[in-house]
Amino acid sequence: MKNFVNEQPLNLSAVALLVAALVVAGCGEKKTELGEGGSVVSGSAGPAGAQGADKSLTRCDAPVATLALAENPNGYTVSSAYHLPASPVPLIRLIAQQSGCFRVVDRSAGLRATVREQDLKEAGVLRQKSTVAKGQGYEAQYTLVPSLTFSEQDAGRSIAGVIAMIPVLRDIAGLIGLAEQVKLKEAQTALLLTDNETTEQVAAATGSARTTDLGAAGALFGRLGGGAGAGWSNTNEGKVIAAAFLDSHNKLVAQVRMLQAKELPPPVATQGRP
Fold first, then answer.
1. Is the pLDDT of residue 110 over 50?
2. CB of 215 within 8 A of CB of 183?
3. Helical axes 89-99 vs 236-256, angle rounded to 10°
4. pLDDT of 97 strictly over 50
5. Using CB atoms within 10 A of its CB, is residue 48 exposed (0-12), middle (13-18) or buried (19+)?
6. Which domain holds residue 228?
7. Domains in the chain: how many in total?
8. What average pLDDT does the structure give for the chain?
9. Can you name the residues that pair with 186 across neighbouring β-strands?
10. Which residues sit opposite 148 in a β-bridge?
11. Beta-carbon-side half-sphere exposure of residue 165 (alpha carbons within 13 Å)
12. Which domain CATH number covers 205?
């Protein structure tokens, strides 16, 4: 960069504007990029359809199968210092249901609660006419397994070094100190889809997202709006991870659309459809 400045003095103004824009552009504390654009995961899913889902969410015209989410047996590469939820599975379940590509069945806490209710009925604790009974659950025709790697790079010193070489910027009180707090955060994700009938992996997709976190500099200008759902909206790290999973899901849908639909259970009963 030093050679660049010396050899092209006419571009000093452009460089100055670029660096200043970097500090001020993260006015929302960070700028999240999903693939080549920004996105968050938010809203709801259910009988009324996807409510409040991001416009970048890729959807299916109809579900192709029932789907269960499974935890990655190798865990997730994210430092506990970020205080994120222990698992991204609830977040991905929301994305999968919002997309309309699958009927999502529970294989975690909801299933354990169902089994407990069934046992209580058999023990005579529940009323005899209870709607809870064994043998009514739906099988998971596919299983989706996520993976996640999160990394953080300290870019502040490099940016501060550039500012120090530009008189118009280095004289701005506190600017170098703010620039030193800039960090680059990146999430790499993958989704692996397995057919439970054949055990064959029928689809896989990777995703990524990057964010520029300005630390205290960004806090001076406010915070980025929008939630990431399922406990992933409170931190910069959570938001970039949510965006990466949305990116990988969107890429997976292109493959899912080519699958032949399996025989599905009856639609969920609603007020207008018993």
1. yes
2. yes
3. 40
4. yes
5. exposed
6. 33-105+140-155+185-256
7. 2
8. 75
9. 151, 210
10. 189
11. 17
12. 3.40.50
